[in-house]
Each structure stands twice: as structure tokens, then as C-alpha cells.
Amino acid sequence: MSTSPQLPALGFGLGLRKEHYTTILETSPDVDWFEVLTENYLVSGGKPRYFLDQIRERYPVVMHGVSMSIGGSDALNMDYLQQVKDLAQQIEPRWISDHLCWTGLNGLNAHDLLPLPYTEEAIKHVVKRVEKAQDFLGRRMLLENVSSYVTYTDSEISEWEFISTIAEQADCLILLDVNNIYVSSVNHEFDPLDYLHGVPADRVQQYHIAGHSDFTDYAIDTHDAEIIQPVWDLYAQAVQRFDNVSTMIERDDNIPELSVLLDELDKARDIAAKYQP
Amino acid sequence: MSHEKSPLLELQQEFIRLLMNGDQKIQSRIIGTQKVPVETRLGIYADAYRFRLIDALADSYPSVHSLLGDDDFIALANAYIDHCPSQHFSIRWFGHQLPTFLQQTAPYSGSPALWEMALFEWTLRDVFDAQDFTPLTMDDLRQLPAERWSDLQLQFNPTIQRIELSWNVPALWQEIDKQLDPSEPISCEYPLPWVCWRKIDQKNWFRSMDVDEAWALDQMRQQASFADICEGLCEWIDAQHAPQRAAGHISRWCEDELITAILPLK
């Protein structure tokens, strides 16, 4: 009997941002769950942990990291992983995610989500590291597709074949960033529907939807603006293809009032309801 | 056994050299398009690397930024990025070497108020997310039997940071925090001791101290007893008044939430 690796869905969530801490505690908004940026809470105490603990008492959370460098050539940073594991033991997230990328080399950190070449070597390398990270954390993790601006001459397959193969071989889940698919499709001139149809439905656990910056000939994943119609359209296509997936609005910069994001979340709910009544 | 270098490692080495040194060797590994040439594509990453780190520095050092103005701050940030690339997984730590960099690097080393401001801002940052604590109350202190005072040793708030400042940077910091134009920095006659800490309400606090209070605090944080402090305070006041002075300091520390516990007798 085959069983889906997916975890129970959480519904419609938002990224937890410090600008909204007080509003969330004062108004208990209609949000099913919050995604917290792991690194912001890998601190000893103070306001970040105070508010996280308060909000965690009221809402389910998931942890989303940017520093695992799962595709990096340095050894996995076990000190970082230990801190992630410790935080997970304290706040009990429903799941932990990071990005399918690399972030630095030789101990130097670029603090960016740098793209990998889509090669057999990179697949083997990442699969081994995901397995190690999952063993250490004691749970299956989610890997998110990043926006990219370069295509490497080394790449042998498509990005969707790359992430799908890694997810299957490492037995991990996928955080499908619909905006990143759109941005990369503009930058690399592919059909975003090919991406949606190229990933295994039973491995997609979560969506990110977000805004970006349009430079006419290319797009940059700035997460600082409203979600544009083509990304909503792609999200509508995604909800028709995948079941049991949790949706999250991701805004990282130019943070608006919480109500603006709640409106976007309602729009996502409406789209999902239309296609998954 | 093959000694061939991994193509993945080679690619990552070239990419890092692009970001950190502007080395364009990686261009041969990238496919450009008519709409978006290779240089533009790589430029997105190179620019993002610097912008993100400059943003992180501006976030950690708003008052240094304000003292320097935009252009000079960006020049400082670029020099710092080149000399002290990030070695921590969290960008929160990226600016930790800026005070030392300013102190040791021309032309900034000629502006001591600037590096003291950086020291002050980084200290407040450390206070902000240091370990949580429960403060000792005045009632706890009052219940201490009189015979226990001589051996009294205290445990202190883990957020405490002690610094010495020769310029009036906390006053300038307050002006900038209130979005006023900062006055000209003024140097003090001698370095003033400051204590910075966080209270239970999660707010950062700081104040200057008399030299004897700073000495007593430093000593008691290193497990000196009340009797030790009374003896040491005789450098500033007569022996008869030393216990009262020491008790006064402890009482104020307690009110300020600087103390977390009375240590048990050994």
C-alpha cells in the first residue's frame, strides 16, 4: 500500500513579521497558521522570542530557514542544525523548511539563495545532505524552489526535474513558491505550467505566494509588493493540480498593515474554494 | 582514486569570487539571452549581495548611518564588506566587527565618537536579544537577614553590558532616535562607565554610573561579596560610610532589575 508523505494541511497562513506582533496579539486575526523565519528566533531571548512564544500559544507555526545551504560544498553546519533542532523542540512547528540552493563557501556567507546547476552530481550531493539533515532533525523537511536569474551551462535537466528527483530520492517534501516559479519562468523563458505539471503531487506540502519586481525583460523576487494577477492565475492552476496543500502569503519587505495581507489571504481562500469546493 | 575537482565546487568557487571580488570568470558558465545578457544576470546577484549587507549594517547602526549621511555610510559599508565578509549563518551578526573596524581603519580611526557610537549601538543590539531572566524584587532583598549581608553574593541580569565611553554618544543616540539633527559630539573629561541592560518589559535601558558604582558592579558580577565591596569602596569614601554606600548601590540595582538572585551560601 502506498501512503502519501504529505503532512496534514494547515489551511491559509501568513509569514510572521515583527511589524504585526502587537496587532496579532490584540486582534487574533483569522489566520490558520504562521510561518516564522527560523534565523530571527535563533537568539537567546528578548522581544523576538517573547512574541513568538505568545503567538505560538494561539496559532500553529512552521519554521522556514534561509541558512541550511543544503546545496553548499562546505560541510553541513551542525551548530546551525542543532540550534534549529533546539528551537523546534521549544516551539513544536508542524514542519521545517529551507531552500534548494546554496548560500556560501569556505565559511563565508553570501546571505543569498544561490541557484544550483541541475546536474546528476548536484542531485547526489543534495540528496545525501537532505538525508543527513532529516536524520538529525528527526523529521522530513520541505525544500523550496528559489527564484533564479542565471542558467548554468552545466545544467542537464529542467529545474522541476531537479527538485522532483531530489524530493523523491531524499524522501523530502516540497514548498512550492508559485511566485518564484513565475519569476524564473520570466527570466528563463519557460512555461510555468510545465513546472507545475512536472513536480510530484504527493510531495507538495506548502505554497508561497508573493509579489516581486518587474524589470520588463526580467523579474526579481523582492517579496515587497502585492501579488500580481499572473501569479494569482498560476496559483489557481496549482490548486487545481495539487490537493492538501497549505497556502502562505510571503511578504519580506515594505511590510504593509496586517489587513492588507489578510485581504490577500482571503483572495487565496476564494481561489482555492472556487476550484476545491 | 580520482583527484578531479568537483564541477559543483568549481562553480561555487567562481560564483563566490564574483560576489566578493567582482571576478567575472564565472561568465563562461552562464547562458545569456538576447533580452537579458550574462552581465545583467550576474549583476543581479552581485548587487543583491552588497545591498543586503548594506541594509543589515544600516539596520544595526542607524545612528552611525545618521552621523555619516547616506553616501559616506555606503562607502563605509562597502569597505567593511570587503574587509570583514560575513562568516556567520545569521545576518544578525554581520556587523559585529564594525566598532573595531572603525577604530583601526583610516579615515574612520580619526573620529573616535564614530566608533564609540558603533560600540554603543552594537551593545544595545546585544542587550535586545540576550537571554531572558526574572529579576529579584525589593521584597526579596528586604527579607535577607541582617547577618547574611556580609557574605552576600548576587547573580546578575544576563542582558547587562558594561562599556566605557569618552564621548557623549548616548545623548547623540537619543537625539537621533527622536529624529532630531544630532549635535556636535562632545568629549568627556575622562571615560565614563555605562551600564546597558534590558528590563522585564523588554525595553532596553542605559545609564552612566559613578566610578565607584561601576567598580562595585563589575566586582559583584565576578562573585565578590558585600564585605569585599565595602572594603574596596574605601578607596573613594571612609570606611564608616562604605556599607551604606554599597547597600545603596545594591538597592538601586535591584530597582533597576539588574539583579536576578541572591546566591546561596557556599
Brief account:
Chain A is α/β, with parallel strands linked by helices and 277 residues long.
Report what the structure shows.
The complex is a heterodimer of chains A (277) and B (266). With 277 residues, chain A is an alpha/beta fold. Chain A has a single domain, classed as TIM Barrel. In chain A, 40% of the residues lie in helices and 19% in strands. Chain A contains nine helices and 13 strands. Chain A has helices spanning 21-27, 47-56, 78-91, 120-137, 159-170, 178-188, 192-198, 229-241, 258-275; strands spanning 12-15, 33-37, 61-64, 96-99, 102-105, 108-114, 142-144, 151-152, 173-177, 204-209, 213-214, 219-220, 246-249. Chain A has an eight-stranded parallel β-barrel, surrounded by four helices. In chain A, helix 1 packs parallel to helix 2 (47-56), helix 5 (159-170) packs parallel to helix 7 and helix 7 runs parallel beside helix 8 (229-241). Chain B is α+β, with helices and mostly antiparallel strands. Chain B folds into two domains: 1-110, no CATH class; 119-266, Alpha-Beta Complex (Outer Surface Protein A, domain 3). The mean pLDDT of chain B is 96. Chain B starts with 6 loop residues before the first helix and ends with a strand. The radius of gyration of chain B is 25 Å and the shape is elongated. In chain B, strand 4 and strand 5 (204-208) form a beta hairpin. In chain B, helix 2 crosses helix 4 (70-83), helix 3 packs antiparallel against helix 6 and helix 10 crosses helix 11 (242-255). In chain B, 49% of the residues lie in helices and 12% in strands. Chain B has a three-stranded antiparallel β-sheet, sandwiched between helices. The chains are: A alpha/beta (277), B alpha+beta (266). Strand 8 of chain A pairs antiparallel with strand 1 of chain B, so a sheet runs across the interface.
